[in-house]
Amino acid sequence: MAKSKWRTVNGIVLLNKPLGLSSNQALQRVRRLFRAEKAGHTGALDPLATGMLPLCFGEATKFSQFLLDSNKRYLTRISLGTRTTTGDKEGEILTQQAVDPISDHDLNDLLNRFRGDITQIPPMYSALKHEGKPLYEYARQGIVIERKKRSVHISNLSVLERSDDSLTLDVSCSKGTYIRTIGEDIGEALGCGAHLDTLHRVSTASYQPENMMTLEEFESILENGGEDALDECLLPMDSAVDYLSAIYLSDSQTRDLLFGRPVSVEEINESSDLVRLFSKNNQRFLGLGSINGLIIKPHRLINTSELT
């Protein structure tokens, strides 16, 4: 009997996205390896960018928004003295000029302008949509759309290396931050212009770089160990929300919850409005509950029909 094209896969993998692929192209490559019937990524990386791209399969896609909304960390190299149409090295050169020398002390003072709470204007070459169409499609037609400023938070901006015409930066930031815009704005502050030369996402939320795997590694695991070995690479679904407290429910509470009924508990130590829910019997992740006092209501549950 022929193997069906797709199968049920639930969990998260951390892809080290290669240079040159869009996030969706990378997602589809990994999805085909797993034969996962449902999949989604959690925050696009441009083809120019590499690094961490969490991929959610099956029921884990219900929690992808939490990763979209999470903090990120990047390493980037900025080329000084050259402005481009796209703000990165793939664009056409607009201007070139000399880079005036600046001391380490003065550079650090300048970078202070980009630390903490700042505002950005999203770049035209971005996937942000206007009237249902990505901004980059307008940009390719030479159309400029007015964009509203957005507030973001830069928790770390440090210089790893510098030369006469480049800066290598370590950036930790909130959701919605455009590293390309930071590079361009630093260039404007220096009076010489700048563009992004490289961009690598180091981490997303609590996921660390040592857990990332390349496409080639996934392919090798499938070839040498089959789908069972590949499935061992899956991270638990609740790892996307591991910062939330865990509540373990009795069998009767679990049944009530799965039928959409609120349950009461004796104690909740959680500052958030949400908690992770598990069945006490088999330690299975059930999804998220919203809390009101000592009452927990279903918020976003996974498909646990076999438990009802």
Structural notes for this entry:
There is one protein chain. With 308 residues, the protein is an alpha+beta fold. It has 7 helices and 17 strands. The strands form 4 sheets. Strands 1, 2, 3, 4, 7, 10, 11 and 12 form an 8-stranded mixed β-sheet that branches. It has a 5-stranded mixed β-sheet with strand order 13-15-16-17-14. The protein has a two-stranded antiparallel sheet with strand order 5-6. Strand 5 (82-84) and strand 6 form a beta hairpin. It is globular.
What would the keywords be for this entry?
single chain; 308 residues; alpha+beta; eight-stranded mixed β-sheet; globular
Characterize the biggest β-sheet.
8 strands, mixed
- Helicity range: 10-25%
Any idea what the radius of gyration is? 23 Å
The arrangement of helices and strands along the chain is EHEEHEEEHEEEHEEHEHEHEEEE
Number of strands: 17
> What is the 3D shape?
globular
Low-confidence stretches: none
- If you average the pLDDT, what whole number results? 92
Q: End-to-end distance, in Å?
A: 32 Å
Strand content: 25-35%
The total of helices stands at: 7
Q: SS-based structural class?
A: alpha+beta
Can I get a quick summary?
It contains seven helices and 17 strands. It is α+β, with helices and mostly antiparallel strands. The two termini are 32 Å apart.
